[in-house]
Design a protein that fits this description.
2 copies of one chain form a homodimer.
Chain A: H1 4-11, H2 15-22, H3 30-43, H4 49-56, E1 61-66, H5 74-88, E2 92-97, H6 102-110, E3 119-122, H7 129-136, E4 141-144, E5 154-157, H8 160-173, E6 179-182, H9 186-192, H10 198-213, E7 223-224, H11 230-241, E8 250-253, H12 256-268, E9 278-283, E10 297-300, H13 302-317, E11 327-329, E12 332-335
Parallel strand pairs in A: 1-2, 1-3, 3-4, 4-5, 5-11, 6-7, 6-8, 8-9, 9-10
Antiparallel strand pairs in A: 10-12
Helix pairs in contact in A: 1-2, 1-3, 5-13, 8-10, 11-12
Chain A binds a DNA duplex (16 and 16 nucleotides) through helix 2 and helix 4.
Chain lengths: 348, 348
DNA sequence: TTGTAGGCGTTATCAA
DNA sequence: TTGATAACGCCTACAA
């Protein structure tokens, strides 16, 4: 390992001068600067980040902690945006996945007060803000869609109600009279009691509002309890179509992953999308552009969302803000591809 | 920030004793141990990793450097395996994506001699082993499918030839008489001259061998030059099917991503898989289980592959091996789902 | 069984 | 403009 001292010896100056010079100090003679740069280059010197972090009390790293990147979720898309935005702010970004494992999540959060990173963008994944605060000891964290801790952490919300409203309304406008909500139901709300219910509640609200406005009846049998995941979607799709009797002409799915699962399950029973039933998802995973049929969806403005997250985080890290926890809501837009069958599909 | 000294004061012992105790030292009196643990707990002490890394000269972190996690690639799957295997070996793992950007890749590789991590599993992504060695100064790196630097780095190879052979042979056995290879052609080989040609060359070889063995003619028009990516696949699919004249009864695609793109492109022209043409991919991305149709594929043994990679890496890191560069080849297996139309589809 | 002392590589301060 | 020095927090010989 080549250190400042090595470079200093070779250049015939002191380590302090080398450090100062290499970081662009102004008051260095041309002659010294040249010798230092040359020596550093020849020796292949690279700053030891562990030492620098120790000295600075900062690492220059922002960590993104998410559930899982596999099974094409929205998180894979998020990673890319985080990287670019962080780079623009002079930070490195790293990704860590918890796979919904509480212990892994705890460990990940704990890393923040071990000087492994300066801040985190964190999907709390069911863990309460209070528990996270205990583990993280007030270090900078921006939460993604947290409902457990009003005012504890900066928080970026997903507008579940509005997204469900927009999706439902679109299917109605596309001609559906019996749209069904997949991924939220009164039963589900009861089942989740004590856990995170807000997203489901809001989805339910948005759906109901759109139905009401259109003068359509909200039937309990048209709200399906389902975790927002692939496998679950497959089962739901099969179940709904079993025996060829699908009691809906449209499916409003609470996320894209679930929607793709449902479409897969329906296909198993010979039900075609959008011919036999229209489907719309939510989130805007990249994969949705390539499936058969292409998935219509209510897409989150991921870039804007991550920009806000990183900005809030960076402000906390460099101390330019240390007031109350802030809360922002992501924006979204409707993307009609094929699965909603509205006829506006616009692929090149 | 709580330090060892703080804990020491509270417990009424020296920092050295606290350090020793907390890391499970044997020669500590029960009384001391209790006081130390209590003090540490009460203060919420957490080891400062920057300091520990500086002291040890190690970080306990292994970094996985890949192209991109989005657009469902095999890398998302890899991440999960790396995480588990590393955890089993007592290492943390972190992910960094380069998005094929040479500068990002260079920066990432440079991090290894700044004490940011102890070792890397690296997709060289076209960069030569020589260039990487210069940047990394002989620190532990395991390459994924590198063909540029025989004997420079430990390397895990993808058996391109065998995989193409297995895929082609399977389509032939499923009844194809005019299987086409998508993603490798003599033209493509010429186009890539000077870059990374080995994977394409091997795919071509494997395909040719299977065709020869079956007594089928290898037609130049049935080997398609195509980058192994979604978008490209979509274009290829459309192009092949244009005007309803597809001159093949099977498509051997060089990876799953490409295959899904091709299927999407074919669908745009009304060509159905596997009814009108059979398709098989390569790699085994998770998504392939859920698409319509489900994607048949030659699946890499990702777990075994990553276990080997991590083992080789850890041996280098802890110094238990420092001999010549080793080379391993991943194994694989055929997974018949729907797209190959062989009739053996085995989904629950 | 516990404590003292020194150093890992870097940088900020201050003196020269 | 440059250099000596101390400190960041931790760990390990070695001494007590």
């Amino acid at each position: 390992m080549v250190t400042l001292k090595d470079v200093a010896e070779r250049a015939g100056v002191s380590p302090a001068t080398v450090s100062y010079t290499l970081r662009g100090g102004k008051h260095v003679s041309k002659w010294t600067e040249e010798r230092v740069r040359m020596a550093a280059h020849e020796l292949g010197y690279a700053t030891n980040m562990a030492a620098r972090s120790l000295r600075y009390g900062k690492t220059g790293v922002i960590e993104l902690v998410v559930r899982g990147l596999d099974v094409s979720t929205i998180y894979a898309k998020m990673v890319t945006h985080v990287k670019h935005v962080c780079a623009g702010r002079g930070y490195h970004s790293l990704v860590m996945q918890t796979e919904q494992d509480p212990q892994t999540l705890r460990d990940a959060v704990g890393e923040i007060n071990r000087q492994s990173c300066d801040g985190m963008i964190l999907d709390p994944c069911g863990m309460t803000a209070d528990a996270i605060r205990k583990l993280s000891q007030n270090r900078p964290i921006v939460m993604l869609d947290d409902y457990s801790g009003a005012g504890i952490f900066d928080n970026i919300l997903t507008p579940h109600r509005q997204m469900a409203y927009a999706a439902t309304r679109h299917l109605i406008e596309a001609g559906c009279r019996r749209p069904m909500l997949v991924g939220a139901s009164p039963d589900q709300l009861r089942r989740l009691a004590g856990g995170v219910t807000e997203p489901v509640k809001q989805r339910l609200d948005g759906y109901t509002q759109a139905m009401d406005e259109a003068g359509l009846a909200v039937e309990p049998s048209r709200m399906i309890d389902a975790e927002w995941r692939y496998f679950v979607g497959v089962d739901v799709g099969r179940e709904l179509a079993r025996g060829g009797r699908l009691d809906a002409d449209g499916l409003v799915c609470c996320n894209d992953t679930l929607a793709l699962g449902v479409i897969r399950g329906l296909a198993d029973e010979g039900v075609r999308v959008p011919d036999d039933v229209k489907v719309i998802g939510s989130d805007g995973i990249t994969m949705g552009e390539f499936t058969v049929p292409r998935l219509s969806t209510v897409e989150l403005d991921m870039h804007g969302m991550i920009e806000q997250a990183v900005d809030m985080l960076v402000d906390r890290i460099d101390g330019s803000y240390d007031g109350d926890a802030r809360q922002m809501t992501a924006s979204f837009s409707l993307h009609c591809r094929e699965s909603c069958g509205c006829g506006a599909a616009s692929h090149a």
